[in-house]
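Final report, closing paragraph on structural work. Over the funding period we assembled a curated collection of sequence-structure pairs, and we close with a single example.
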Amino acid sequence: MKFALNGALTIGTDDGANVEIRELVGDDNFFLFGMAEPEVAALATAGYSPEKYYEEDEDLHRALNLLMSGKAHRRRARVLRGVRVRVAHRA
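Its predicted structure, as stored:
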């Protein structure tokens, strides 16, 4: 369940209850992030490939590599390494 009060700024994706809230509060009071429904449908048709994002987005590549290096959080490095493997080398 979601609700919006007068003057509230909403940050959300364009799905579910957020669609209705956005219609009611107006675009000036709603900050959209993520994809719109047509973009999601196009991605589903083309095929989702997380390793492509990892390889082609230099910032994402560097950020994931930093997390997995252990420099950011040594005790979590092993767990985070698994995330990188799943993203970069999806089975």
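The chain has five helices and two strands. Residues 10-43 form one domain. We thank the funder for supporting this effort.
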